[in-house]
Design goal:
By secondary structure, this protein is mainly α. The protein contains one helix and no strands. 98% of the residues lie in helices and 0% in strands.
């Protein structure tokens, strides 16, 4: 009887030890996963910062192009207005000369 109780307890202890080893293995794996996830998050943060930097650079370039286009539009309008004035002036001279 004493031997049977000892064997039962021994089996229970062995099962507990086995369960403990499995839990320790799971904890170790989760710890490794956590470290890997932290590294991945850190790397993604660096990539995100690089993308944002590039986006800001592109935004700056686009703004410069827009500013230049506005400047060219203003110059074109001024040139067109001056050409229109010149054309009207020439037409008036031609008309006066034709009348003379």
């Amino acid at each position: 009887m004493l031997l049977n109780e000892f064997l039962k307890e021994h089996k229970a202890v062995q099962e507990l030890k086995s369960a403990l080893r499995k839990q320790e293995a799971i904890i170790a794996q989760l710890s490794d996963d956590r470290a890997n996830h932290q590294t991945t998050i850190s790397n993604l943060g660096k990539v995100l910062n690089a993308v944002l930097l590039r986006l800001n650079e592109q935004d700056s370039k686009i703004q410069k192009v827009n500013d230049r286009l506005e400047q060219l539009d203003s110059e074109t309008l001024a040139t067109s207005a001056a050409a229109g004035e010149l054309s009207r002036s020439c037409n008036e001279r031609s008309h006066r000369q034709a009348q003379s």
